[in-house]
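Please produce the structure of this protein holding zinc ion.
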Amino acid sequence: MTEQATPIIVVDVGSTYTRVGILSSQGVLLDDRVRIRTPGAALLPDQSLSDLQSQLIETIAQQIEQLRQRHPELGLNQVGIAIGVAITCQGIVMDASVLWHQRAQGFDLASALRHRLDGLTVWIQNDAAAMAWRHYKLGRFILYTVSTGISCKVFDRKLTNMSQLVLDDDELGGELGHVSVAPEKGWLASNHAQSRAQQMPTAFQNSLLAKLVSNAHEIQPGHLGLAAMRGDQFAQQLLHEVDVPYCECGNLADLCAYSSGPAIVRTAQRMAQHNMARFQKSRLADFCNGQINAIDTYAIAEAAKVADPLAEEILGQGTFFLALSILQLCAALGLSQVVIAGGFANGVGQPYFEALHRNLTRLLFPSGFFTNWTAADLRSLILPSVDTDNDALIGIGRWVQAQLNSQSGKNCDGETIAQEQSRTKLKERLL
Ligand SMILES: [Zn+2]
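Below is the modeled complex.
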């Protein structure tokens, strides 16, 4: 980034933690120590949606005020916010189910923040878009974020829209986590639920599921997913019986339901319940005191690091549909660089990437786009993210700086058009 770039207050709102910092005029992350629990539905399940929204805005505003007080010399008046929801370029929420366990469609987050942060310029981007900007020097690639949810963004430096991402006119796109990857599993689950509800009328009538339908014959996959997501034990038990996963959005068997961090934890718990003897002998059991309910991402990561076969199998299942999605999108768009960002994938680290690579190897057939691809090509396809926890913070700051550069006729590296042309000519001469 150019030395004249404006320092930016950067905020990363994840489902679990919110972090703040400053991206300096030299592109260095400063004062990024603050990490607070996000006041979302996971932390405050009993609060109303409007209370959660107000608390989030207040939390962000307070952190920004404190940062400005700590660094008066920087004249901080530009704010970049990366947030883990589907959001338009105008800052209107389209789907916040992972953060608030409700879509909250139409909520004008940008206006609410600008009203609270009077006098500051507020820029908002989806967090995966921000993470892509952390890696913009790769030129053309797809970034997947694998954490509480899953989404992707395709970056192409040749694009001329605000984000240089492949998106629609509202800057939406890449929310592939909530698309079914195994719809037959959803239909299997609803057929199973219809017959079980008739076999167990009392349990059914006492369930949340019964409140969503007028009789058992009407149970559809969406009803089961919604009930399970809201904690209905009857619906969760039925899904467990047919081994069908649900997602926080209420869908069954979508990509998030298999490959997000919480989904992989639930897969691990299901596998442990299905084979208690194997679980008790596994290293995974050592990292959760032998308690199935205590299996978490940390335990899976630690067990995978000591090559526990059960943990490796869990990661194998958790990366299968992700690998399929990667190959489909690479072939569709002609991509050969895939950045995997997000706390879960990078938190587990090497065992996660090995599991993903094994699935890619199993699924890739060397025809069409992949004709002549070698094992080395496949090995170099996947790139772990550079900064893991800081990707979104640095990326959102770079994106805001690029927008400010663009307003003053410069490219995203802060070069004027004349400087860029002269550098390109020099490069051509050297070639
Ligand atoms: Zn979903």
